[in-house]
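ok new one. same drill as before - structure tokens go in, u give me an amino acid for every spot. 347 of them this time. try not to just spam alanines like last time pls lmao
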């Protein structure tokens, strides 16, 4: 599944490293704030908070090489009941948020995951579960799929390719087969088939390249998964890998960090800026700290004044505030753009 070549991505510049790159040139080019100014754009400011993304911790049953959270089975960071209840209180006091986007790690491993889902749905919020699929087959989670369906939770699940070799290379041996089993289970209970049970898949490149066009790749996914496994799903979301945490370590080991950082900066697309997810989202950390996005959270780039959920009375207070940015933001503005909802602009 070749997705990182110039032929696959003709709209993106410099898909291969260039010997003329230097650290000084890359440093000048990779200045996100300066790039906004040179493009005639103001510094980023949030409009209103329509999505509250709740990262309940870094505990996961997998340790994927691209993971920007650096999650895994040995991590212990996990949201407490007190923190979860404070998030629910703030949501109940807020007028603007309509979506609770629960992520991790494997969010389902948090002790209060089902409590969060139940209470968010009781408040009338649309709930998204960022699921790695294999968790649905883990001992002790046999009722999880039915629980999610019973609360009409939208599932957005990572499946970085439709071939066993590529998925197992990125996510671990045996993950592809388990993911297929989980998708078949979800189809059997209506996910990807019923309008009330949306099932989305997430693609991200295996290496230092930008994703291909989302519509064309979605067609490939749907054809292969239906023909080979009888699997149906709603949407494919293509997401650009961020050069942070575990993926940044991979880039450093392979000598491609500077190339990839330059690739993102060289493909800055001003048309994506008005659609960035941080303009309508607030990210809550497992410990209650607030961030402008999940990537800032992993880099520990706080929002101005370092606010926590105990410093505010509702998420509506986070509207009309400046957004903290750094050079990793080029990952969201390169090419067609990238967000937790997939690409930001069309062809």
């Amino acid at each position: 599944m070749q997705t990182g070549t110039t032929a696959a991505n003709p709209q993106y510049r410099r898909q291969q490293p260039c010997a003329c790159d230097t650290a000084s040139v890359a440093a000048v080019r990779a200045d996100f704030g300066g790039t906004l100014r040179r493009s005639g754009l103001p510094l980023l400011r949030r409009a209103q908070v329509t999505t509250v993304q709740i990262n309940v911790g870094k505990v996961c049953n997998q340790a994927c090489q691209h993971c920007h959270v650096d999650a895994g089975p040995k991590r212990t960071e996990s949201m407490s009941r007190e923190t979860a209840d404070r998030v629910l209180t703030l949501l109940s006091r807020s007028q603007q948020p309509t979506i609770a986007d629960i992520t991790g790690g494997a969010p389902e491993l948090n002790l209060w995951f089902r409590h969060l889902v139940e209470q968010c749905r009781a408040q009338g919020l649309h709930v998204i579960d960022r699921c790695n699929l294999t968790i649905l087959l883990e001992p002790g989670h046999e009722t999880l799929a039915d629980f999610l369906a019973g609360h009409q939770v939208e599932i957005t699940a990572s499946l970085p390719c439709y071939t066993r070799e590529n998925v197992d290379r990125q996510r671990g041996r045996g993950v592809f087969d388990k993911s297929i089993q989980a998708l078949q289970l979800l189809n059997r209970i209506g996910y990807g088939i019923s309008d009330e049970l949306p099932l989305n898949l997430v693609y991200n490149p295996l290496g230092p390249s930008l994703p291909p066009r989302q519509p064309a790749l979605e067609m490939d996914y749907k054809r292969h998964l239906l023909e080979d496994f009888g699997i149906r799903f709603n949407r494919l979301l293509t997401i650009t890998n961020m050069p942070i945490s575990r993926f940044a370590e991979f880039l450093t080991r392979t000598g491609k960090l500077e190339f990839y950082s330059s690739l993102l900066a060289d493909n800055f697309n001003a048309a994506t800026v008005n659609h960035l997810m941080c303009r309508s989202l607030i990210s809550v950390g497992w410990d209650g700290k607030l961030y402008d996005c999940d990537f800032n959270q992993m880099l520990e780039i706080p929002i101005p004044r370092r606010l926590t959920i105990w410093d505010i009375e509702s998420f509506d207070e986070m509207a009309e505030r400046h957004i903290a940015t750094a050079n990793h933001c080029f990952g969201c503005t390169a090419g067609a753009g990238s967000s937790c909802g997939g690409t930001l602009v069309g062809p």
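Strands lie at 51-55, 99-103, 126-131, 154-158, 199-203, 235-238, 281-284, 290-291. and btw Residues 2-12, 14-29 have pLDDT under 50 and may be disordered.
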